[in-house]
């Protein structure tokens, strides 16, 4: 699941408004909306506050955030998947 989609579902399941999440993170509502709609990636420095505010494990947010960051980096690269396979192989050895 994408980070933004997860955040949106989590926010809605808790009955929270965009403005409440934005206020907790000291970010604009429009920016939070863009994060939820996968138009922007939340800066990493806000993840800890978001995890605390939403009462979810930071590790869960970090994994989803990192996966989005990696996908964004390689999705438009013709050889992105091949590069990712090399990295995965190097990390597993």
Overall description:
The chain is mainly alpha-helical and about 90 residues long. It has one domain: Orthogonal Bundle (434 Repressor (Amino-terminal Domain)). Helices cover about 70% and strands about 0% of the residues. The chain contains six helices and no strands. The protein is elongated, with a radius of gyration of 15 Å.
Note the overall shape: elongated
- CATH class bucket: Mainly Alpha
CATH level 3 topology? 434 Repressor (Amino-terminal Domain)
- How widely separated are the two ends? 27 Å
Helix-strand category: mainly alpha
Could you tell me the number of beta strands? 0
Number of domains: 1
Rounded average pLDDT: 96
Task: For the structure shown, list the relevant keywords.
93 residues, 434 Repressor (Amino-terminal Domain), elongated
Which helices and strands appear, and what pairs or packs with what?
Blueprint: H1 3-13, H2 18-25, H3 29-36, H4 47-54, H5 58-74, H6 80-92
Could you give a quick summary of the protein structure above?
The protein contains 6 helices and no strands.
């Amino acid at each position: 699941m994408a980070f933004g989609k997860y955040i949106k579902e989590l926010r809605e399941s808790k009955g929270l408004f965009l403005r409440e999440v934005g206020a907790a993170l000291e970010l604009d509502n429009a920016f939070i909306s863009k994060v939820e709609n996968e138009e922007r990636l939340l800066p990493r420095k806000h993840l800890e506050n978001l995890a605390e505010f939403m009462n979810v494990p930071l590790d869960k947010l970090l994994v989803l955030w990192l996966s989005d960051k990696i996908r964004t980096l390689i999705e438009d690269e013709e050889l992105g998947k091949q590069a990712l396979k090399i990295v995965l192989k190097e990390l597993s050895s």
